[in-house]
Amino acid sequence: MVHVEDSNDGIRANGSIAYELLQYPRILKLTYGADYWDFHRQNRIYFSPEEYLQHGPMLHWRHYLNREHYAGAEELYYGIKLPLRVDNDGETFWGGGAEFLWDINRRWTLAADFNGISGNPYEGYFGRLWVRYRF
Questions:
Q1: Over the chain, what is the mean pLDDT?
Q2: Maximum CA extent, the chain
């Protein structure tokens, strides 16, 4: 359920399935996913579609650079993502993404994740940086 301050509530759902072509420590994954949006009212100020579906494949490469490889080991990796999406109007979307994670030690993690997709009716660019401390 999506709640917006102007009472234009709606539903957003997504799902995906993946198959690993290459496995750890160099993972190459083929994913097929779908996203669904349905707002009660369309608004010109923000993307608020009615019964909108976007789906397609994504290729995801992740390379682990850890010194040790066991469950619970401190992780260090980078990755790239290449999605191709099609919506229920037949519009095509291309995108890209990058990720990085470094467990500096058992307590501290530094990470970044950036994604973008471009097509009609919208373009979306998302990014996040975070620092994690474990007690």
A1: 90
A2: 52
Alpha-carbon span 28 to 59, nearest angstrom: 7
Cα(114)–Cα(76) distance, integer angstroms: 17
Question: Buried b / exposed e across 40-74, counting CB within 10 Å, b at 16+?
Answer: eeeeeeeebbeebebbbebebbbebeeeeeeeeee
pLDDT digits (tens, 9 = 90+) for 30-44: 999 999 988 877 766
- Spell out the long-range contacts of 87-91 with Cβ–Cβ below 8 A and sequence spacing 24 or more: 87/52, 87/53, 87/54, 87/55, 87/119, 88/51, 88/52, 88/53, 88/54, 91/119, 91/120, 91/121
Which amino acid, 114? F
Task: Please write the tens of the pLDDT for every residue from 107-129.
Answer: 999 999 999 999 887 788 999 99
- Which helix (DSSP H) or strand (DSSP E) does residue 29 occupy? strand 26-39
Structural domain spans, the chain: 17-31+58-133
Q: Which tens digits make up the pLDDT trace of 3-34? A: 556 777 788 899 999 999 999 999 999 999 99
